Amino acid sequence: MKNIHSSNNFIYFLLLAASIIILDTSCSRISESQNKVEANELETLFNKVEPLKSGIHFVNTINESPQLNYYTYKHMYIGAGAAAGDFNNDGLEDVYMVGNMSPNKLYLNKGDLKFEDITAAAGVEGSQGFYMGVTLVDINADGWLDIYLCKSGKYRDSRARENVLFINNGDLTFSERAADYGLNNSQYSVQSSFFDYDMDGDLDMFLVNTPVNFDISEKVFVLDFIYQNPEFRKAGGNDKLYRNDNGKYIDVTENSGILADFGFGLSVSTTDFNQDGWPDIFIANDFVAPDYLYINNQDGTFSEKSNVFFRHTSFYSMGSDAVDMNNDGHADLMVVDMNPSDYVRSKTTMQMMDRKLFNNMLSAGYNSIFMHNMVHMNTGMGSFSEVGNLTGMANTDWSWSVLAADFDLDGWKDVHISNGIYRDVLDRDKRNAVKNFNEGNKSRMTPQEVFAYLQSFPSVKLSNYSFKNKNGLEYDEVGSKWGLDEKAFSNGVAMADFDNDGDIDLLVNNLMDTAFLYENNAIQQGSNYLKVKLNGSKENPEALGAMVTIYSNAHQNTYLINRTRGYLSGSSVIAHFGLLQQKTVDSLKVVWPDGRISFLNDIESNQLLTVDYADSDDASSGAKNPAKYLLVDRTKLLQPNFTHRENDYDDYERQVLLPYSYSRLGPYVSVGDMNGDGMDDFYVGGASGQPGAVYLQNSTGSFLKTEQTLLEKDAGHEDMKSALFDYDNDGDLDLYVSSGGYEFEVGTEALQDRLYMNDGSGVFISKAELPDLKTSNSLVLPHDYDGDGDIDLFVGGRILPGAYPFEPKSYLLENRDGAYTDVIHSVVPDLEYIGMITDGEWVDIDGDEKEELVVVGEWMAINIFQVNSDKLVSVTSDYNLETQKGWWQSVKVINKNDGFDIVAGNIGRNIKHKASDEKPFHVYASDFDKNNSVDIILAKYYKDKQVPVRGKDCTTEQMPFIAEKFETFDEFASTDVQNMLGESIKEAKHFEITTFASKVFSFSAGSNEPEVKDLPIQAQVSSINRILNFDVNEDQSEDLVIAGNLFQTEVETTHQDAGTGLILVNNDDKGFKSINSASSGFYVPVDVKDMKLLERTYSKERYVIVTSNDGFIQLFGANP
Questions:
Q1: Is 92 left (phi over 0), alpha (psi -120 to 50) or beta?
Q2: Nearest alpha carbon to residue 955 among 943, 971, 944
Q3: What pairing do the DSSP bridges indicate for beta strands 703-705 and 638-639?
Q4: Count of alpha carbons within 13 Å of 35, Cβ hemisphere only?
Q5: Exposed/middle/buried for 614, CB within 10 Å: 0-12, 13-18, 19+?
């Protein structure tokens, strides 16, 4: 990780880092010509239009020197923007290109993708300055597009940094009038966005600035100190909010809730993120500063809520785009970072996250941050779920712009990401060479020496990335297939239908290279489309902030109207919808910026449709009754609620390369009638230092916490899973609690399981004798396996503290006249050290009225053990499950009339690791450096060799010999696991897994060959830690309720935190249909560890009780 506290700018390197008006669909239609040809006549979706044809010869050129370069001015390689808009109202989108140090250019669209440079005549080249972002806006609402330019630069005279506003005179000439409008800011500006934040009808503006002293953006501060210290507003980098007062823009930043900040902002998105009808503001900040999300308070002020809405964010945030990616009508958000997809580049150009720094940032008020692109999916519940790894778009190297649009016209928004840095200023070996030079010399490098060394850094052109959207959560990389993979140093990108043929073309601004213009061939390949142009209100003529949604065949597609998108750039505001072969659209709805509504029916495809604000209706006429949830929150029935308080322990001090923390696995819950009144009660476990709790249900259906003196005395244990059963046959339920955790040594009393005796009233007054079980266990499963009339116990081992991933011991406790004896070695030896067990259950799967034991765990298959005489025998291979190895977290067996299903919850596919039958994911463990500790190497495939997942720094921390064996980062990136570990790998503990996906294994009656299917993609966003099956929607079919997450991953692996709870409705032969939180009401965006069903006797309702690590209990009931 970079040294963020260093004051030497020459020795560390940081990146740039339902009654509504029905309008006649005949209004303002413009049919557009099409020239469709057979798809096989076109090799790619896009073809590059050469400059000789297009007339766009623009090159963004920079001039480096010892006095002006990356180390003296970190904006140097940041690139510049591009914009598309119709400046002369002829129906053709024109182009404005920004040059950092070269003249800006205005190109007039002459049709047929030919453009004319009219810069000089128009007077829009711009004077001295380092230009960056461009925003097009009709700022004076006269019907003509104007140009606002952000400037920065290392200039002593602030006038050279004043932003520029070119007012369109209506004759293709422009007049500079930024000062007249109050917008000649000189604070190192980057980008702006115009929007109506106060809903008064006119356009206000948010301006992103960067600090004058770039070092500020490289340091970690206590955030409250920054926000409460007015001195930081004087640092020059504070973002600004301007209110439009009768055409004059007034700085209202300090009174509007916009915080004093130190962020190196690179992009801004203004849209309604929380579905309240008011526009909010997102700012992507590079370097160390957090991203900001300002939620509109509807009174002229904002509240910063990024830590509320996002569970984690990107580290080096750059470009961003707010769009509806999954067609659910909500504004999702993509933010790009700079992590390479290529293994070698990731190990040689990226500095790894330091664990202590990560924790210090959390303590200072930061969110969890990770170095990759973020795909924040809007839950519709006041939060986002980040699914970048699931989509396959997480790693696209040094990325700048991200834009989403339906390029192939199939109804799903695809993604284009620009890529490349002029010099690899983060090359780790080069950086070390500079550091070593300075440390070996009394004097620092001179500016000339620094500049000379800078020029030796690699300068590698990279391909831009393009992704085809398959279903809103899965994407295919199609850059080469679509013809968009030419290598360059690309930055700002603009989108528009430049040739008016019905598909979206692309314009890319490159650093030190000619701009790219790409023609889209989707129309020629036979697809249909609909374009919608909005004629807005008098003071917001382009209807910025509006939302257009089309509805067809029970599907919807939403387009958000904003000019500022991506990176330093602006795109067309014509809403563009792909329809494939669809000839008509059932209906179209426009929600205007002020909330008014327009609604149209039966719209023909392949046209430009104009909708006028003047024909809109009041929003109340389109109001709908709120949807009825399947489950509603009943948490208030808990009196008082129980809050789990996790004890503080750092697992990584013992094993640096652990994949996640094993000291934070609880709490778990057990349900049963503990006081004999016929009503369900429950027990919830505590963390070490916190006793578990017993809740008894009363006659009104509330759950009351009871006093439990004995449990208080055992607060030192880390409670894992528990079970309620009648151990002593006295008619009441006794309580078995397994002990676990990672912080205790095997053999210590804190790991001993406990069996509490019930006095009949739900009070536990004594403990029964148990064998020595002082290992870190995960679960206990009561069952009379030997059929002698008393309850035996299977106790599953979870982990060997300090020795991951070695197999812990498990136990089979046979009840012999009230005393338990471990008989696992003699009865079922294959189960004794089977692995790191996470879940299991006793269930009759073969219909012989004898229950089998099904157990799952990490690095394990799905195992089945069958009672055979006085033994338990593995029949895993009989059911063809021995190769189904995963990081299984949960299992549920569902018996059906014609067979049974095994539903297995895995870690999910939203993780950076990948696994398959052909290329499994591996772990090797041994004392490789001979220092009496277990070292871990997680390994993946790069091409055809196994390589370490973790980087050189952290691997060296675990095994110091790595630094000696591989002196450079390039050497480390070039090796494989075999070469790294040598002969010692042969003696290492070795496991592999073939899938991270959660699955369902369906067995037909009489067949032992399962039909294996992944659970729906919506169920793959995070780990599934618990699965319930019951008829949620009362249709006589059993549904699934799933929940999970895994917040405690190591700092270089993104937290598994995208889950919010999911209901999978059983559609019989059609499989499961996903019902998300916004539709079901089941919302648990926490680190869920357990769920159970209980019955509320008072109302005969079934309830779902949910526990989470370091959180409170949630309770959900059926919606009456």
A1: beta
A2: 971
A3: parallel
A4: 8
A5: exposed
Put residue 327 in one of left, alpha, beta given phi > 0 → left and psi -120 to 50 → alpha.
Answer: left
> What one-character DSSP code corresponds to residue 361?
H
| CA–CA dist 520, 499 (Å, integer) | 9
pLDDT in tens, 459-471: 999 999 999 999 9
pLDDT tens column, 718-758: 999 999 999 999 999 999 999 999 999 999 999 999 999 99
Helix (H) or strand (E) holding 1073, with range, is strand 1072-1075
Q: Environment class of residue 463 by beta-carbon count within 10 Å: exposed (0-12), middle (13-18) or buried (19+)?
A: middle
Q: What is the mean pLDDT of residues 65-75?
A: 90
pLDDT cut 70: percent of the chain above it: 95
Strand partners, 887: 858
Tokens of 573: 């505001």
**Whether 573 contacts 562, CB under 8 Å:** yes
- Return d(Cα 569, Cα 491) in angstroms, integer: 9
369 bridge partner residues: 313
Sign of CA dihedral 651, 316, 955, 8: negative
Instruction: Give the per-residue pLDDT at 622.
Output: 58
| Spatial separation of the C-alpha atoms in residues 660 and 681, rounded to whole Å | 33
Count Cα atoms within 13 angstroms, Cβ side, for 865. Answer: 23
Helix (H, G, I), strand (E, B) or coil at 637: helix
pLDDT digits 0-9 by tens, 856-882:
999 999 999 999 988 999 999 999 999
Please tell me whether residue 428 adopts helix, strand or coil conformation: helix
Parallel, antiparallel or unpaired: strands 703-705 and 399-405: unpaired
Strand partners, 865: 853, 874
Hey, what are 686's tokens?
A: 């505590």
Three-class secondary structure of residue 59 per DSSP: strand
Say how far apart CA 979 and CA 946 lie, in whole Å.
Answer: 10
| Average pLDDT taken over every residue of the chain | 93
| Spatial distance between the Cα atoms of 1042 and 1045, rounded to a whole number of angstroms | 11
For residue 34, name the pLDDT band (cuts at 50, 70, 90).
very low
Which pLDDT value is given to residue 546? 98
Q: In what order do the strands lie in the sheet with 776-783?
A: 776-783, 792-799, 811-816, 819-822
Among 441-445, 515-519, 783-787, the minimum mean pLDDT is found in 441-445
